[in-house]
Amino acid sequence: MEKEKYRNMTISLKVAAEEKIMLRRLAEKYKVSLSEFMYNLVMCFKNQYDYIGMLSPKEEKLAENLRLEKKKNAKLGFQIENADYRVEMEMNHRIQIQNKYHELTYQLKEEKAINADQAEELKRQIEINQALVADNKKLRNQKKDQQLKHAIAGAVGILAGVSLK
Fold first, then answer.
1. DSSP annotation string for 66-131
2. Statement: the pTM of the whole predicted model exceeds 0.70
3. pLDDT tens digit sequence for 127-150
4. DSSP characters for 16-70?
5. What is the chain's Cα-based Rg?
């Protein structure tokens, strides 16, 4: 027959009044006496005394994973920040290009208007020149006609002078 274990020894601890009330309520919640509740707590955690105030290996692993995730998050944050900066730079560059495009388009339209005005002026000058050329031809023809008349009149005069002699 196994040796039976009797719990007939007492171990005590000192607690504050609020702590005793809290422990008693916890014991009542689980429907055990305060003594039984404290016994179970001590027995359950007796081999974990080394970890009081420290992290358990499982908690350390979780803390390391958390640290690595925070590091990844920080790295991703920098990447997002860099990407945002690149996007902002590209947008500013695009705006500058658009502004230059609009400026060049405006200048082109101005030059087109100037060229259209110059083309009309040139057309008007050509018409004036053509009218002057026509007038010039008329005057030359008139001059030739007058010269011919003068030549004929001179010849008639000479002939008349010769015939009167």
1. HHHHHHHHHHHHHHHHHHHHHHHHHHHHHHHHHHHHHHHHHHHHHHHHHHHHHHHHHHHHHHHHHH
2. no
3. 999 999 999 999 998 888 888 888
4. -HHHHHHHHHHHHHTTS-HHHHHHHHHHHHGGGGGGTTS--HHHHHHHHHHHHHH
5. 59
